[in-house]
Automatic annotation (TrEMBL):
Lineage, highest ranks first: Bacteria, Bacillati, Actinomycetota, Actinomycetes, Kitasatosporales
GO biological process: carbohydrate metabolic process
Claim: Signal is one of the keywords in the record: no
Keywords for the protein's UniProt record, in alphabetical order: Isomerase, Magnesium, Metal-binding, Phosphoprotein
Protein name (record): Phosphomannomutase/phosphoglucomutase
Originating species: Streptomyces purpureus
Length: 458
């Protein structure tokens, strides 16, 4: 292994709660990637691992260095090459191997990162191995890396794209739907790699947008959660007279939907729609939703005879609850969708197939189909920059907690609930921001609640 610079580095800026992420090469580089590979092999104790990477210019070299680090530790490496994050989860689940995905998701081009999982796509976060990996890398970077094992592991390539696509299509019957015209905005991300294979031989007229793999994101950021990044898709859906539009983020693990009018469909409505379909197959099953999803989600789950379970925001919490409860499905407001049939991992592509199957299995437009799943007006997520997060949160709590009929909970940030409205206020883990989400029975109430909270913040 290469010599490391003297002094113990502080990796707290790049080792996040659920992944590794930072700018290349100033925050991390190939030598650190190699140490991360060795540390991952040691912490998982695995004889073999699987890795994949996205289309960012720095991804292949970082993945190669990581593989070399794991191999020098004696671990066999299966390299699936270019992949979406959920394609890597498929490989981890199908091959039953720990996995590493090189991506910075929707972050700008100068960023890169690693999403790690144990065999069967089980998540690795701060409390489940990531802190141990960080500590080893910091130690080895300062004191010198461990000696190479006498038996160096092999590194071999394996293409799983066709198997991944076949697995997804085995879970949802899309082949028998009516023909649909769908515009797909891949944002120059990994959707341009996976969509052609997954949608092949389906009754779909696909209009591709930005399918060229380009980690510099020349057209727009690959973050469809920001409304400005789906304006091209909305316009194209209207121009083409398409039945719907789909937008994927950079590593194609999240999917956003717009209807035939070019109007965005709330991820909560997609969560409710998919939940209803899964509960039709698995009566009485549990469905997980985070606390920012709409009231519509638990209502639809109960209407279908299922059991809704509310969790904190974040994939590690969702996946833990899925495993604990045996839930069939889980959804988040950020368009992450988790499936028991997919090792409890998140896959936007499988959610997209459910939407296509639901729409193509009846004659009405998507706007009518989702109307019953999108019952209440909401504010969307509003970010406010504040000097003192704790003080502002306390001020908001003090303003609401003594009001009659109001309940307070602190499962994740501050949630205030009344008979006709609710809001959640959460601190960002990485920025001096407070994030507000509000929902109510009518537009006037949601606007009044939103404005009152924002006035208290500012």
């Amino acid at each position: 292994m290469p010599a490391s610079p003297p002094g113990r580095p502080d990796l707290s800026h790049i080792v996040k709660a659920y992944d590794i992420r930072g700018t290349v090469p100033d925050q991390w580089d190939r030598p650190l990637a190699e140490l991360f590979g060795a540390a991952f092999a040691k912490v998982t104790g695995a004889d073999a691992i699987v890795i994949g990477y996205d289309m960012r210019p720095t991804s292949p070299a970082l993945a190669q260095a990581f593989a070399q680090g794991a191999a020098l530790y004696g671990t066999a490496v299966t390299d699936i090459g270019l992949a979406s994050t959920d394609q890597l989860y498929y490989a981890s689940g199908h091959l039953n191997l720990p996995g590493a995905m090189f991506t910075a998701s929707h972050n700008p081009a100068q960023y890169n990162g690693i999403k790690l999982c144990r065999a069967g796509a089980a998540p690795i976060g701060q409390d489940t191995g990531l802190a141990d990996i960080r500590a080893l890398v910091e130690q080895w970077a300062a004191d010198g890396p461990p000696p190479s094992f006498t038996s160096v592991g092999t590194i071999r390539r394996r293409d799983v794209l066709a198997d991944y696509a076949a697995h997804l299509k085995s879970l949802v019957d899309v082949a028998s739907i009516r023909p649909l015209k769908v515009v797909v905005d891949a944002g120059n991300g990994m959707g341009g790699h996976t969509v052609p294979t997954v949608f092949e031989n389906l009754p779909l007229d696909v209009v591709p947008m930005y399918f060229e793999l380009d980690g510099t994101f020349p057209n727009h950021e690959a973050n469809p959660l920001d409304p400005k990044n789906i304006t091209d898709l909305q316009a194209r859906v209207r121009a083409e007279g398409a039945d719907l539009g789909l937008a994927f983020d950079g590593d194609a693990d999240r999917c956003f939907v717009v209807d035939e009018r070019g109007e965005p469909v709330s991820p909560s409505a997609i969560t409710a729609l998919v939940a209803a379909r899964e509960l039709a197959k698995h009566p009485g099953a549990t469905v997980i939703h985070n606390l920012i999803t709409s009231w519509s989600v638990p209502e639809v789950v109960r209407d279908m005879g299922g059991v809704p379970v509310r969790t904190r925001v974040g994939h590690s919490f969702i996946k833990e609850e899925m495993a604990r409860t045996g839930a069939v499905f889980g959804g988040e407001h950020s368009a992450h969708y988790y499936f028991r049939d997919f090792w409890n991992a998140d896959t936007g592509m499988l959610a997209a197939l459910h939407v296509l199957a639901a729409l193509g299995g009846q004659q009405g437009p998507l706007s009518e189909l989702v109307a019953s799943y999108d019952r209440y007006p909401a504010s969307g997520e509003i970010n406010s920059t504040v000097d003192d997060q704790s003080a502002r949160m306390a001020a908001v709590r003090a303003a609401f907690e003594s009001r009659p009929g109001v309940s307070i909970d602190t499962l994740d940030g501050l949630t205030v609930t009344a008979p006709t409205w609710w809001f959640n206020l959460r601190a960002s883990n990485t920025e001096p921001l407070l994030r507000l989400n509000a929902e109510a029975r009518d537009e006037a109430t949601v606007a009044a609640v939103r404005d009152e909270v924002l006035a208290l913040l500012h």
